[in-house]
Amino acid sequence: MRSKIVISIILVTILSIKLFGQYSTLQLNFGHYIGDQKLVLDSVMFKNELGQNFTVSKFKYYVSNFHFKSSSGKDIFINETFLINEDEEESKKIILNKLPAGNYTSFDFILGVDSLHNCSGAQSGALDPVNAMFWAWNTGYIFLKLEGFAPNSLSPGKFFEYHIGGYKQPSNCIRKISIALGKEVKTDAAITKEIKLKVNILEILKTPTTIDFSKLSSVTDHKNATLVADNYSDMFKLMPNEK
Amino acid sequence: MKNKVIYTLFILIAIAALCNSFVIENPYFKITKKDVKLKIPKGFPKPNYTFKKNKLTPDVFVLGRKLFYDNLLSKDNTVSCGTCHQRIAAFAHIDHKLSHGIYAKIGTRNVPALQNLIWKDAYMWDGGVTSLELQPINPITSPIEMDESLENVILKLRANKEYVKLFNKAYKDTLINSERLLKALAQFTGLMITANSKYDKYMHKKDTFSIAEKNGLQLFRTKCAGCHKEPLFTDNSYRNNGIKMDTSLKDFGRGRLTEIEKDYRTFKVPGLRNVEITYPYMHDGRFKKLKDVIDHYSNSANHDDRADTLINKIGVLSAQQKKEILSFLLTLTDKEFLYDRRFADPAMLQ
To answer: Which pTM does this prediction carry?
Structure first.
């Protein structure tokens, strides 16, 4: 008799946890493109807005502070930081498993690392300085690294190297990225839902400022850093067939 | 007979164990809970770094101490933090103008003392580093200091049996990563607190000042304390102290970071505790003696055209006044800190 009561209590508890605190799993896939061509590191030559050739040797960036809007108007915040690296296939699929099951209409996140996480001392995981996305001499995370080879570049070796970061004015390079989901995305605990994003590197090199490799081959000052940040703020789009 | 052998063996093992524990547990180097308790000196403000997310424990402190004095942090295993930050000099580099690094390279700035670090809001002469925990990445990775990568330091530590043991003891599991390395170093350097100089004793009415020292303190308060604010003897600001730019070093100081016009050629105001033994002086170590520093401030005709307004207000000091200021500055030496056994290198016994 007594054991039956215990078992029923346990069952009821498990059920209520399942019903009320249900988390779903959402996977965000970051596909890297140059216009409509898939990015291939080093070996493939691409063209910028001015018709100048270039290859990409490195492409890494931080995404963090996710915010989802549900169809009932609820705001869900997920305070996690991910480092996406073209060179590491697994890093381009990020898993959010703290999202309550529900219907979502839009979400946003920031490209970069917010001031709180820039001022939290030694950290591990995505924010471990060994990831080489950190400036030691002027404390702060590098939000985005884009490096490559461009015959028009005037630097020795004809490289271009854009390391963009800075969380303080006048060099705040954090940019909020908002994605409207064409149709509602329903997430639940049973299956992992996927959202595919198209990340267009050409957008880093244009709008509002078209970058000429012969004039800007590396970024070391605040003015050019924010110029590139303004450019990259529109590089994320929902993958066209997702709409 | 058999019993005798066992008995002898037992005695021998006991003696060996005792000897061993004597080397390890030498009381001079033993760190207790009491040793790592953070005590805020009377009259000091609240510190900026509080150890809140880096709980002080004897085992983490001991790990930090070993790391601080270990050449392993440098690429060719020749340079440690302690190489340039010497205990006898309040962790500055005594009698060295500019920092010395790996491969006999010479840096562009004078090694600062490591003391009362938890009250700073930024580190380095230009204030570029905003966290005590993140500061060591600079010397470790600088090509003219230790020329090593953080990644490789971690690999070296993971391959070292003694460190595997020490990290395990400190953190209760075998993970070795940069966060733990940096936090252990922050425990060791963060507890370097100096507040037991003659000046402190005088302020707490436990010692007396000579007439010269008293006059020196009065002069100091009117002429110097605008920037060197008590009790830390710095206001943590960045200023141009009137020295002309060294044309070969071309150091633009804080301006290089902020790109703001007024910050060019300004440097952090250093705290003056233990100033007697942190010679040479200024960010480029150009003055050998304290007397040279006082002479510089007194001679406004020679000041840089970007000198801070407070520096030009000091005016000409008489020989008597200079002597009095000097005798006051000598009261800032804290022998208890300089000989604090907690910061000694246990390896020096071997």
So the answer is: 0.89
